[in-house]
Amino acid sequence: MNDMRLTERATDMKEIKITAEGVDVFYGDAHAIKDVSVEIEDKTVTAFIGPSGCGKSTFLRCLNRMNDTIDIARIEGDILIDGEDIYHPKVDPVQLRAKVGMVFQKPNPFPKSIYDNIAYGPRIHGLAKTKADLDDIVERALRRGALWDEVKDRLQEPGTGLSGGQQQRLCIARAVATEPEVLLMDEPCSALDPIATAQVEELIDELRQNYSVVIVTHSMQQAARVSQKTAFFHLGILVEYGETGEIFTTPKDSRTESYITGRIG
Amino acid sequence: MIDMSADGSAPAPAKNSLHAADERTRRRNAAEKRFRAYGVAAIVTGLLALVFLVYAILSNGLPAFQRTVVNIEFTMTQEQFDEAESALLKTRVYTDFFIGALTDSLETRGLDAEFDGGTVERLLGKVGGTLRSHYRENPGDIGQAISFELPASSRVDRYFKGTFTRESVGEGNRFMQPGDLDLVDALAEAGVIIQTFNWQFITGVDTGVDNPGGAGIGASVLGSFMMMIVVLVLSLPIGVAASIYLEEFAPKNWFTDLIEVNISNLAAVPSIVFGILGLAVFIQFMHLPQSAPLVGGLVLTLMTLPTIIISTRASLKSVPPSIRDAALAVGASKMQSVFHHVLPLAMPGILTGTIIGLAQALGETAPLLLIGMVGFVARYPETFLEGFEGPNSAMPAQIYNWASRSDAVFTEKAWGGIIILLIFLLSMNIIAILLRRKFERRW
Ligand SMILES: Nc1ncnc2c1ncn2[C@@H]1O[C@H](COP(=O)(O)OP(=O)(O)O)[C@@H](O)[C@H]1O
Ligand SMILES: [Mg+2]
């Protein structure tokens, strides 16, 4: 995990999962994302870093159309997942979001039991035919969320009663329960203590086996620890995108260099 | 401040003892004490006003729950019945039998009293008629010893409650003569005249001005209840649906802003405006029956809707947006996120708002005056449907009606009605609190 020999990481090309081309996002008149083009790989952890307010969350929320819920948000350009335009009029955002899961900055479990938190997604998508199926799904999701051993004896207790780190892992488990292909995480550790952060980071590393993970973080150390690819945003512009090792050791852009050496942000 | 202590060259501030408060602190503490005193004074004033109110209501209203009755055992034989029924002045004969029985029962207790039909009528009202209708309706009681509780006249009742004194009896008073009160005292001594709980006040219907003692609030309680059913059935679903739409689905533009402003304005519109609107629309235009709880309920629904919408929207707003995001992010539709997650969390607030709105509507009088729900209601509706469309009154309107009659007993009934109304309002508020406790969940 704390492997800092960044340059020696595997750099073999993976399949492209998400393609963004010339994406602009406006909040009313404010231009939050300016002409961003990026290709995000499958089975890879991609980190979005940059000073706060640079548009990382905004861009992330474009990937599962959560920005649709903001009235004043307007998006231009194309975003393709597996080659399909997700802003095509025929696309139902509800279907999209089952395929692109999301974990938020602040853990936000439903005020229901742990079991119901996980089972909610599979239920509304009809993933389980029987109660036993559902039990299976819940167990599998909690195991993937590295939470099973801690909660298996108290599945009926409220999810809101867990500790912050456990809640966040519950939210990750909830997101993977619907069998998504992409997992978006918006600063998932910023509300957690260092131990919980380490647990979640370890989990993210494991999730890479099955998903394309995109994580927004303001911590460069975290980006260095968990990601294979890093994108550096500044004032709504994608300044630099590449192998995490290269970005951190030999940044091409002076702004990236200033940021990672602590001069901006 | 911080760098001063670190830097030796800066002038050291004068050392102050922590044990002696400095001037600023003293002034601040004094201001705080003053503010607390104001607060306590305000609360004490409020409490005093409340105590006075409760005292006034209870002392004036509680007598309405008591009534003075003449408790007497009476046997009517078949011959007496036949004799009375064949007489010309039937009730007169009944009265004579009653006088006989009363005299007998007094004599067995060692009391010698003189009275005639006039006295009995002054003390008890038209006893003959009461007896006659009882035996005609229950012929099986003939020949049996029946214990009657006959309500005493309003002046006798008030004599026992202290609002009618011997001084009030003037010579030539048609309703009461000086000797009557001696007789009343004797009867009370003998245990013939007693005070009992006035069930008739709770279950009874309104009576004419000649029988204030018999007036009850039951029918208007039913009228109020029917109106509340109409209000609840209409305003809860409409109000909640409107709020959910406005809060969760409607686009934010000048049109929805306009609607929003108008809903807030409607909540402040005087209720009599809704009353005249109801008169014009429901009665004159739609020709719904006058004085009907259905129409009253419709008018009160209009009045309650803004309250429900405002409180429902407030409780929807207070559900953290992160819950909506969480639901949307696992692929719930907007509607699923609202109905599965937001609405259950907003439920306690919605229910509380609804009950508060209902309580307001329950106490509303002005609109009812305009749609004619202040009439004289002398009977219960016969069917459930008639309860909605038949003429009826409502508690506050009945209270208003009684308060405007001249007999002091009606005034007492008005106060008693206030107590019943307050009991209803209090119970509704308690239900609201209990529901909120039950549904309240933490997140
Ligand atoms: N809901 C919103 N309405 C209006 N402006 C927004 C909204 N969300 C974000 N912004 C603006 O968009 C810009 C980018 O924000 P954000 O994506 O949250 O940045 P980051 O996540 O990198 O800190 C900021 O200037 C912010 O003020
Ligand atoms: Mg952000």
- Main sheet summary of chain B: 3 strands, antiparallel
CATH topology of the largest domain in chain B: MetI-like fold
The topology string of helices and strands of chain B comes to HHEHHHHEHHEHHHHHHHHHHH
Overall residue-averaged pLDDT value of chain B:
86
Q: Can you tell me the CATH topology of chain A?
A: Rossmann fold
Cα distance spanning the termini of chain B: 41 Å
The fraction of residues in strands of chain A falls at 25-35%
Percent helix among the residues of chain B? 55-70%
Give the distinct bound molecules.
adenosine-5'-diphosphate, magnesium ion
Most strands sheet of chain A: 6 strands, mixed
* Alpha-carbon Rg of chain B, integer: 33 Å
What does this structure look like?
The complex is a heterodimer of chains A (about 260) and B (about 450). Chain A is of the alpha/beta class. Chain A has a single domain (about 45-70, about 90-260), classed as 3-Layer(aba) Sandwich (Rossmann fold), CATH 3.40.50.300. In chain A, about 35% of the residues lie in helices and about 25% in strands. Chain A has helices spanning about 55-60, 95-100, 115-125, 130-145, 150, 165-175, 195-205, 220-225, 245-250, 255-260, and strands spanning about 15-25, 30-40, 45-50, 75-80, 85, 100-105, 180-185, 210-215, 230-235, 235-245. In chain A, the strands form two sheets. Chain A has a six-stranded mixed sheet with strand order 6-7-8-3-9-10, sandwiched between helices. A four-stranded antiparallel sheet of chain A has the order 2-1-4-5, with helices on one face. In chain A, a hairpin with a 2-residue loop joins β1 and β2 (about 30-40). In chain A, α6 (about 165-175) runs parallel beside α7. Chain A starts with 15 loop residues before the first strand and ends in a 5-residue tail after the last helix. Chain B has about 450 residues and is mainly alpha-helical. Chain B has three domains: about 25-60; about 70-195, no CATH class; about 220-440, MetI-like fold (Orthogonal Bundle). A three-stranded antiparallel sheet of chain B has the order 2-1-3. Chains A and B meet through α2, β6, α3 and α6 of A and α14 and α15 of B. Adenosine-5'-diphosphate binds next to β2 and α1 of chain A.
